[in-house]
Amino acid sequence: MKPVGFALLPGPGELWVRRGIVSYIGLLVLVPFSVLVFVAFQDGLGAFWERITSDVALSAVGLTLWTGLLVGVLNAFFGTLTAWVLFRYPLPLKPLVSAVVDLPLSIPTLVAGVMLSILYGPASLLGQKFSALGIDIIFAKPGIILALLLVTLPFVVRAVEPVLEEVDPAEEEAAVVLGASPWRAFRTVYFPAIYPAVISGSLRSLGRAMGEFGSIVIVAGNIPQETLTAPVYIFGEIESGHPATAASVGSLLLFIALALHGIARIAEKRVGGRHAQA
Amino acid sequence: MSIRVEHLRKRFGSFQAVDDVSFEVESGSLVALLGPSGSGKSTILRILAGLESPDSGSVWFDGEEATHVHARSRAIGFVFQHYALFRHLTVAENVGFGLLVRNVDPKTRAERTEQLLELVGLGGLGGRYPSQLSGGQRQRVALARALAPEPRLLLLDEPFGAVDAKVREELRQWLRRLHDEVGVTSIFVTHDQDEAFSVSDRVLIINHGKLEQSGTPAEILDEPRTEFVARFVGDVNVFTAQMDKGIAKVGALQTPAQSGPSDGQVQLVVRSYDLKFFREDPGVATVERVVPLGDRVRVHATLDGAGSLVAQFPRRSSLLRGIEAGARIQVEVTYARTYPLESGRNSAP
Amino acid sequence: MHKLEALPALRPSASVRPLKDDKLRAPSPLTRIVLSGLVLGYLGLVLLGPLSALLVEIAEIGFGVALSKLVDTTALLALKNSILLLLITMVVNGVVGALGGIVLVRHRFPGRALVSALCDLPLAVSPVMIGLSFLLLIGKGGVLSPLLEAINIKLVFTFWGLVLGTLFVTLPYSIREVSYVLEELGTDEEEAATTLGASPWQTFWKVTLPNIRIALGYGVLMAMARSLGEFGAVLVLGGSISGQTQTATTFIHDSIEERNLDAAYGMSLLLAVFSSGLLFILERLKKRQAKTQKRAHGPSKQTA
Fold it and tell me: Which residues of chain B neighbour A1 with C-beta distances below 8 Å?
């Protein structure tokens, strides 16, 4: 019931501020993306369909989707586990570990790619050990997955951590006093609280993974139908002068991203709802 | 400053928060807006402050229309329910804020701030931050801050809602004294009838966005105009009674009743302290429980053919002689009021 | 009235098993060690290992040698571009974050939800697509290119192309942080300032801004970190023309392509160090924010 909009009760000055902000965001985001979608469809639906169903495009989008989904799932597991361990267990150098988890937020993804190729590249000690076992990491799919895991590392951890801290420890104590095992207590007390955050965090990592470019360019090798992801494919099409193809695949990714974004927003609302109750 | 409010209405979505409310407040008085939560009383206060604009109706200050005057130009002081102190400013800076934005020179500002802090009993705490104060102290800073620009009208939204019971009582008495000292017209919102009656000159009772009754505390307590008011301002028994030539009949009990219709079915409202019990067999009721409550005793009884009945007596009252669980009693009603059946049936507090 | 006799008698029932002692104990040390080990192992595999590998590699080359490769005209020009972009990001996102947050949270106007969603969009799409969209709008043969040519403005493959791409990808950070805090704060303090006679701008400078400054700083630093690390959008929009539109990240990319690994590692080191510095400040700000929030919410329940 609380009315808002008071602090800057729109007088003439505030109205200009609002117009400025709205046009800035509109011009910066809405106009370019509208053009992207326009170019994708200006030759008709058939042309759009043809461009996104070429073998190379299909395999690039497919690769991006399945690696993204895998990374989302792995993040849901390891992210929750990391948040839980950081929240609950005494860990040597905990503040340091906690800060390190945030590092991918600030480190350039290109540099992340460079790091991975140094550690796991064909010239490195580890890389040679693995290729002796017949496993290539860099310039192969495992490298893509590692890179995506690195750049999306903080997403689930940071979504889950604050929710864990808001759970009333008395709830867990109540469960334990009633005879629940630690695993059972986690499942009945903490899990219901954090699962919207886990879903929202892992959807965000999926979204991020589907758009990742900097690190992939370095580690993937970009072999068509092999390790060429959709963003790299789009970049290639721009470079080779096929903007319409780039725009078509780009629009497809944009639609998928919008859908994911919508789902993540709904999940976040549910997290917000729990916060309000607490 | 005198205030007149005419036909105020305000709707939030499908919720009618204020519904055709009109009243006047005399200059220099201390008035309470009393009602259950969600009754619209805070909205009325916010409309007076200019923090909310009414859908229709008008607000007049000293005979001048102020409905569309911006909040910052109304020269009112507003004390928020949760204080709303500026957390990044010291106590002194908080109090001096209204003077600062009016470009009062620093020397006068410092003097007035110091004066006000003395007035509210917080002299010497000017350098602290709000987070370093207790709830009661914050409340007083909020008051000093609202008083600093010498407002014509002081509005307080549930001023003592967020402090504990003991501090609340102290603050009430203090607010009354402060009001008498400063003399500024003040209106405060509360859902606590004790607070409204013990502090204010006049009480306006609000329910479902409507003004139910306005008057002095004594008027409202003695002559509640509606069943809602009767229920809200006291510990009452409510029965559906049959009226017959001014006599109300409820089960085995018969009593003359003031006000209301004189025939047909009515709501009979009897306050718990307007009853007398005498031990008598067969009588009209059976005592169920006797509950001592400090200086008073509450007696629960069952009235034959009408259900439960609650009465209160002073602890050492002679009326309590022989009153114990299981005893049969005669009941005498010293004062009762009746209301038409349909009025405020769904508005029990 | 309830009668006590009417309540069902509480008797130990056969269906309730007595607790085993160990169920009341904290998780066993084994669980703890296994879970902690799993997490540390994962962090090592994905993040710490690669990070140390970069440091070891550069140590082998020699930190001095790697960094000395950066004392070179192209590298310095790339760095200059990155620093300029960093500063522009800071200023623009500082202003847009504070005002945009207020507009989106406090104002009510048609289309607010759409604008708010647009704000988040750059987080959800690939920077390459952001670059592509601008290319299609203002690039050669783009929708606006006749107009731009007529007034003789060139944006793509110039520094201003870099600016556009960077501002797009960094748009959400400060607005999101500020919006979140504004929503938490509520409007009480701003209303109090207004009833005390403050004008909207006085309220903004004296009440709103001090309350959001940590969040604003946090958001702007996140945006700066992102601008420094941005690669896809500036590559597409700037074209990474050496000495002109190359930035620190595209310099690394080009150096790797040219097998000039020492320079690539040197620049990577520089960026990693700088972004770790930013991260350090970010962590400090986060703690301060948590503390002020605790201070604002916590003791308000206590009484005299």
Answer: 12, 15, 17
Cβ of A143 under 8 Å from any chain C Cβ?
Answer: no
Which residue in B82, B98, B164 is closest to C197 by CB distance? B98
DSSP string across C199-221:
-HHHHIIIIIHHHHHHHHHHHHH
Q: What is the DSSP letter of B318?
A: G
Chains that touch B (3 or more CB pairs under 8 A): A, C
User: Model confidence over C45-84: pLDDT tens digits?
Assistant: 999 899 999 899 888 888 888 888 888 888 899 999 999 9
Q: Based on the fold, state whether residues A68 and A36 are members of the same structural domain.
A: no
- B208 is in which domain, residue-wise? 3-222
- B314 forms beta bridges with B296
- The rounded distance, in Å, linking the Cα atoms of B65 and B127 is 40
- The 10s digit of each residue's pLDDT in B161-181 is 777 778 788 888 888 888 888
Among the listed residues C120, C128, C93, C86, the one whose alpha carbon sits nearest the alpha carbon of residue C238: C128
- Nearest one of B102, B118, B189 to B150, comparing CA atoms: B102
Q: What is the pLDDT of residues A94-120, one digit of tens each?
A: 888 888 888 898 889 999 999 999 999
Q: Give the SS3 label for residue B22.
A: strand
Domain co-membership, A233 together with A266: yes
Contact between B344 and B204 (Cβ < 8 Å)? no
Please state, in angstroms and rounded to a whole number, the distance separating the CA atoms of residues B310 and B327: 15
A56 and A180: one domain?
yes
- pTM, two decimals, is 0.82
A123 interfaces chain B, CB cutoff of 8 Å: no
Taken in order C290, C291, C293, C297, the sign of the CA dihedral is positive
User: Are residues A89 and A163 located together in one domain of the fold?
Assistant: yes
Distance CA C121, CA A30 (A): 9
The domain total for chain A is 2
In chain C (304 residues long), the average pLDDT of successive 10-residue segments reads 45 52 58 87 90 89 84 89 95 94 88 88 89 90 84 88 93 92 89 90 91 93 92 89 88 89 89 88 83 54 33
Interface contact flag, B17 A9, Cβ < 8 Å:
no
Instruction: State the residue range of the domain holding C229.
Output: 69-295
How far the first Cα of chain C sits from its last, in Å, is 39
What CA–CA distance (Å, rounded) separates B221 from C184? 42
What ipTM does this complex have? 0.85
Total domains present in chain C: 1
